[in-house]
Specification:
homodimer; Arc Repressor Mutant, subunit A; 2 domains; 0% strand; DNA-binding
DNA sequence: ATTCATGTCGAACATGCTGTTCAGTAACTA
DNA sequence: TAGTTACTGAACAGCATGTTCGACATGAAT
């Protein structure tokens, strides 16, 4: 015992609850989903729910580790792309990955998204950008603006593009969104109007 | 009658409810504030509350018109600043204005902010930037990226800087935040590292 | 296969907030 | 001052929460 083995019944119950939550988020949104809904949908006893999770939020967060992991893997291979010298964020992979599961991601980070999910993705991207920026600083010296502010700027802009893109039914392909993001971040507004400055 | 005059009692009640809501938002956050809290704090009867507003959200939104108006006035004079050719957003005025009432704005748009408030400010900034961008396009022709995406990018980045700044106790003066935002938007990441590109 | 631990069920319960109703009372307007 | 309008306060039904408990079912271990 104590061998890390989890009782089949426990696995089953947790799976049912997670699936029910995702279903309901897609159907009626996170906020309007109640614990009552979840246990009805999962066909699980009320007391069973509270034996596993503190509340709705706790259930959601227990599924976030998986999301983070999955996202991390999908985003990892995007760094070494050609001409990526100034690219501090895996934007192409992000657009592609979220676009593939756009129903889910739209429900989770679009419109009135789920705060804790947005925060999770935000933090992951921030950590990523911060690391690459540190590297860049080592190579090229300090930029003329506070690095932390720069990271906030980049992540904020990317998250805005992403949620807008999902909310508006992905009117451009991931490649174009990535391209646009790159041009704006690297060269700025002046350059996209054809200025050499 | 029907002369636009509002009964003093009505004015009084609404003022009490609005004040109570703001108080409670600052004290315990919007989400944790209940209608019960509000009417207790305002010392107003339960039925009176529902005679004026549908629910907590309705009360909040009824106060948003004022915020929008006030914000609009404070932000209006920031456009014609020197060297503002590429500046599509009144960032300096925004940092100054929110910084002055940072307790309130932090509670409303920082950390776990209030969705509808964030959306209101976001929309106001978006409309502002969109208008200036149209003007710029008339002068200089089409940029090489979709204008709507550009607006989303700029507003998203600015909102990110603003919330970060408020959440972190305004570690830089408004002028520096504005300056940083300008440099990143206008010239991009490459330029802040001293590249001429 | 039997045993024993553990998970689940389902019902009941106290609690708290919501939104509505209504008769009585107070305050404002004209 | 008269008449309209707003507020009060209490009561009510509805619903979701989170807890508890004994009965039951299913798993793991020998």
């Amino acid at each position: 015992m104590a061998k890390g083995k989890v009782d089949r019944r426990v696995q089953r119950t947790r799976q049912l609850l997670h699936d029910a939550l995702i279903d309901l988020i897609l159907e009626k949104g996170y906020d309007r989903t109640t614990v009552q809904d979840i246990i009805d949908r999962a066909n699980v006893g009320r007391s069973t729910f509270y034996a596993h999770y503190l509340d709705k939020q706790d259930l959601l967060e227990s599924g976030l580790a998986r999301l983070r992991e999955e996202l991390g893997q999908n985003l990892a291979g995007d760094d070494g792309a050609e001409g990526a010298e100034w690219m501090l964020l895996p934007s192409l992979a992000l657009f592609r990955h979220t676009g593939q599961q756009h129903h889910l991601f739209r429900a989770m980070i679009g419109g009135t998204g789920i705060d804790v999910v947005v925060k999770t993705i935000d933090e992951a991207l921030t950590a990523h950008a911060q690391a690459l920026l540190d590297q860049l600083i080592a190579e090229r010296g300090q930029p003329c603006v506070p690095p932390r502010v720069m990271v906030t700027y980049l992540v904020g802009a990317l998250m805005a593009l992403l949620t807008w893109w999902l909310d508006n039914d992905m009117p451009y392909p991931p490649e174009q969104m990535d391209q646009t993001f790159r041009e704006l971040t690297v060269s700025g507004v002046a350059a996209v109007f054809g200025e050499t400055q």
